[in-house]
Amino acid sequence: MRESEARFRAIADDAPVMIWVADPTGDTSFFNRLWLETTGQTEAEALGFGWVDVIHPDDRQAVEETFFRATAGKEPVRSEYRLRRADGSWAWVIDVGQPRFSANGTFLGYVGSVLDITERRAAEIAQQEAQAFIRSIFDSSPDCVRVLDMEGRPLLMNEAGRRIFGLNEGAPVTGQTWDSIGRASDADKVEAAWESVRRGKTARFEISLRDAGGEERCMDVISAPITDHQGKPFRILSIWRDITDAKRASDEISRAQRHAEAAADQLSSVLESTMDSVMLLDADWRVRYLNENARKLLQVGDEALGRVFWKLFPEEEEGSFAKHCREVMDRRVRSFFEDHLSSLGRWVEANASPTRDGISIFCRDITERRRAEEDTLLAQKQMAHMARHDMLTGLANRMFFRECFEEALNESNHARMAVLCLDLDGFKAVNDTLGHPAGDALLRQVSTRLIQAVRSTETVARLGGDEFAIIQPLMESRDEAFRLAQRLIDTLSEPFSIEGAAATVGTSIGIAFAPEDGTSADELIKAADIALYSAKSSGRGTYKLFDVAMHAQLQTHQQMKITMRDALAKGEFELHYQPLVSLESRCVSCCEALLRWRHPDRGMIAPSEFIPIAEETGLIVPIGEWILGEACRQAARWPERVSVAVNLSPVQFKHRNLVRAVAKALSATRLDPARLQLEITETVLLDESEHNLELLQDLRRLGVKIAMDDFGTGYSSLGYLRSFPFDKIKVDQAFVRDLPHGKESLAIVKAVAGLGQSLGMTTSVEGVETEDQLAVVDSEGFNEVQGYLFSRPLPAAEISKLIAAGSL
After folding, report:
1. Which long-range contacts (CB under 8 A, 24 or more apart) does 791-798 make?
2. Residues of the chain above pLDDT 90, percent
3. Where is the PAS domain (predicted)?
4. Element holding 741 (H helix, E strand)
5. Which residues does the chain have with pLDDT short of 50?
6. What is the structure's pLDDT at 262?
7. Which of 277, 291, 292, 389 could form a disulfide with 297, with the two C-beta atoms 3.0–4.6 Å apart?
C-alpha cells in the first residue's frame, strides 16, 4: 500500500493537471504539486477547505453547494469556476471528482482533477454553437425524423414529423406510433425493419399514410439502430422522406453516443477523468497504460499493452517526437512540446514527464487548432489584400489608392506628377439594358484595358462604381498626362463584347497636377474630381485640366442645392399647365402640370437647371408631393371632363410613401381619381422593375390613370406595354418634328397609333407645332395632341380661361 501510495503521489505530481483527494467528510487530504504551483498555496493552506479561498468570489458559493450536495449523495462532482493563479490572474478550470468506494461498498471520499480550460473555453463555446446548429438542422429538416424505443414507441420527433401527425408545439409525441396514420397492410414490413434494426442493421422501406391534413402520402423510410457505448442497439432512428412528388431520399441522420465507464482502480479513475490522452511507458519503451483518449488518438486497443511503442509506430522512432521523449527519459526533466505524428496524420501538444520506472506522456490532439491557425493566417492575408483592393476588378481601391498617393508624394518630394480621375459615359445604359452581371463584366474589361494602357510606374485604382483614377509620375512635361488621357479615351471608346453582345461606352477625364493644384492626396483628388465634373458637363468623351474657375462653377452648383432646400418652404415654386386637346371634340381634355421656379434674385429658372439637382439630392420627393396636392387642387376647379397629368420622377418610386402621397392629395382635394393621370418614363421600369411594377399596381388600385411618357425613346418600350397595362401612351416629340415628310417617323407614328387601338390605350402625341403635323396625327387616329400649335404652358389662372373658351 505504501508503494502504491508513493507511485500515486509520483504520478500525480508529474501530471499536467491539478489532482486532489478528499475524505468522506469532504475535507481535502491531498493536492498535487501543480495545484500548489498554480495557486501559490502551501499544502497546509489548501487542505481541508482552504482550497475555497482561491476560487473567485462570484463562483465560490455555487462550487461549495455543488461539492456538498455531491458529498451528501456520494455522487460524482463536476464544476467549472475561476481559479486565482499565484500571479493574481484568474484561470477558468473544470473540476471533476469521482467517488471512491472500498471493496465492501464503504464510501472513501473523492479523487479528482482540475484542468485549466481558459484557452479551451472558446473551443467549447464553438462546440456548443455547433450542437445548437445540429439541433437546428434536426428541427428544420424537411424530413420527419423520429427516435423510437426498441418496441417502436416514439420518444422524440422533429417539427416536420409533428406536422405530419398534426401535433402542436409542446404536445407529447408518445403514443404517436406510425400505425395511427399508416396502413395496416404495411405492418409486416415495419416490424421486419425493426427486427433488422434490433440486430444492428439498417433497414429501408416505403409506407403509405394519411397525414394530418387527410392527404395520402408515400414515405421512403430509413430505420437505423442507435447504439450504446458497447455498440448494442438501444434506440431506433426513423427518417421519413416524402416521395409523393419524387423527392430524393434524405441523408441519414445518425449520431452515435459513447460513454466512458469508470475505471476499476484509483489510477485509472484519475487518468480517465482527464481530457488528455495519457500514455505510460517503461524504461524499455513498452506501453504499460493507455487511457481511452489515448487509444482513440493512437487508434489501438488492448493489444498494444506490453508492446514497444516504436514497434507500434516505427515511422516515429527517428522523428522529433521520439527525440523529445528520449530527452525526458535520459535527462529526467519535464518537456512540453508540439509535434506532428506522421503515422497518424495528427498534430499533438505533449507534456512528457519522467516517472520512477519510465515516462508519462499527456497528449492533446491540436490538429484542428493548427488547421484553424493556418486558415486564420491565410484569411488575414486575404483580408489585408481585400481591404486594399477592389473585389470585382482586382485594382487598388480608394483606401490603397490614397496610401499610394501619399507615398508617391512623399517619395517624390513634391516632384511633378499627375492624377487622372475618369468615369464611364453610358455605363448606366449597359447596366439597364444588359443587367448588372453584364455591367460587372464590362468593368472588368475596362480595368484590363486601363492596365494595358499605362506604364508599370503608374497606379490604377477603382474608386467605386464606374469611377477610376490613375497616378502618373511625370518624367518630362504635362504633355505626358494629356497623351495618356487621350490614349485612355481612344482605348475605352472601342466596342466591348459582353456575353456575345456589343457594348460601347466612353470616358470623361479630369486631370490635376502636383504641386500646382495641390500637395496632398485630398487636394489633388478633389481638383481632379472637379475637372472630371467639368469634362462631363462639356459633352463627355473628353478631358479637362483643373483650373480655379471650375471650382467656382461647382460651388455655384452646390449653392443651388442649398438654395433649393428652402425654395419649397418659401413658396418659390409654381405650376404651369400645358393643355392636351381631344382630336374628336377639339376641346381641352387634360392639362399637364409643369414645375417652375421663380427665384427671388435670378427670376425664372429653367427646369433643366434645377430638376436634375432635385433628383440628385432627393428633394424631388417633397417637391413631388407638393406638385400632386397643388395640381389636384387646381384640377378640382375645372370641368369634370378635364383631367390633370402629373409627371413622376424615378426617384419618387424609391420611396414607399408615393402611393400614400397620391392618396392624400386625392383625399384632400376630393378630386375624382379617374381625373388624375400619372406620367412615367421608361426609366422607372428600367430601375428595380419588379418593385416599381408593384407600386404601379398599387397606384392603379387607387383609380388613377397611368400614362407612359416619351414612348419610343427607350430600350424596350413594347416589352413594358406587355408588363403593365398603361392607360395612355404619349409619343415623344422627336418623332413629330420631321412630319409629314420623314418616312421613318411616319412609319413609327402609324405603328404606335395601331398599337394603341389594338391594346385599347389612349394615344397622345407631343410637340405638334404645325397644321401639317396635326393633319398626319389626326389621319392616323390618335386621340390627343399637345404642342405649341395650341398653347404654350400657362399659369393656373390663364389655363382656366383657355379651358372655359371651349374648342381650340
Report:
1. 791/578, 791/579, 792/578, 793/576, 793/577, 793/578, 793/592, 793/594, 794/576, 794/577, 794/578, 795/574, 795/576, 795/577, 796/575, 796/576, 796/577, 796/634
2. 27
3. 4-74, 130-169, 263-298
4. none
5. 247-264, 715-716
6. 36
7. 277
Bridge partners, 154 (sequence order): 148
What CATH number corresponds to the domain at position 420? 3.30.70.270
According to the model, what pLDDT value does residue 253 have? 29
Integer Cα distance of 784 and 763 in angstroms: 6
Last residue of a domain, one of 69, 94, 123: 123
Nearest to 717 by CA among 735, 742, 697: 735
Domain boundaries, position 747: 561-804
Look at strands 358-365 and 277-282 and give their pairing: antiparallel
Q: What is the pLDDT of residue 61?
A: 93
pLDDT confidence of residue 378? 74
Does a structural domain hold residue 414? yes
- Residue among 65, 64, 114, 113 at smallest CA distance from 85: 114
CA-based radius of gyration for the chain = 42
Judgement on whether residues 48 and 163 belong to the same structural domain of the protein: no
CATH of the domain at 622: 3.20.20.450
> How far apart are alpha carbons 158 and 240 in whole angstroms?
11
Last residue of a domain, one of 220, 242, 264: 242
Helix H segments across 256-307? Answer: 266-272, 292-298
Same domain for 542 and 612? no
Question: Phi-psi bin for 40: left (phi > 0), alpha (psi -120 to 50), beta?
Answer: left
CB contact at 8 A, 414 and 473: no
pLDDT of res. 151: 86
In angstroms, the CA 287 to CA 325 distance is 13
Residues 672 and 774 in one domain: yes
Together in a domain, 572 and 711? yes
Q: Which are the contacts of 692, defined by CB distance < 8 A and separation ≥ 6?
A: 653, 684, 685
How far apart CA 446 and CA 390 sit, in angstroms, is 14
Q: How far apart, in Å, are the Cα atoms of 680 and each of 277, 285, 335, 686, 733?
A: 74, 88, 80, 11, 16
* Residue 762: count of CB within 10 angstroms of its CB: 20
Indicate if 697 and 766 belong to the same structural domain.
Answer: yes
**383 domain residue, yes or no:** no
Q: Which grid cell is 752? A: 404606335
Say how far apart CA 423 and CA 264 lie, in whole Å. 79
Residue 434 cell numbers, joined: 444588359
Helix H or strand E segment including 427: helix 427-434
Per-residue pLDDT, 256: 30
Residue with cell 420527433: 157
Q: Kindly report the CATH number assigned to the domain that includes residue 222.
A: 3.30.450.20
Asked whether 145 and 253 are in contact (CB, 8 A), the reply is yes
pLDDT at 421: 93
Residue 258 domain flag: no
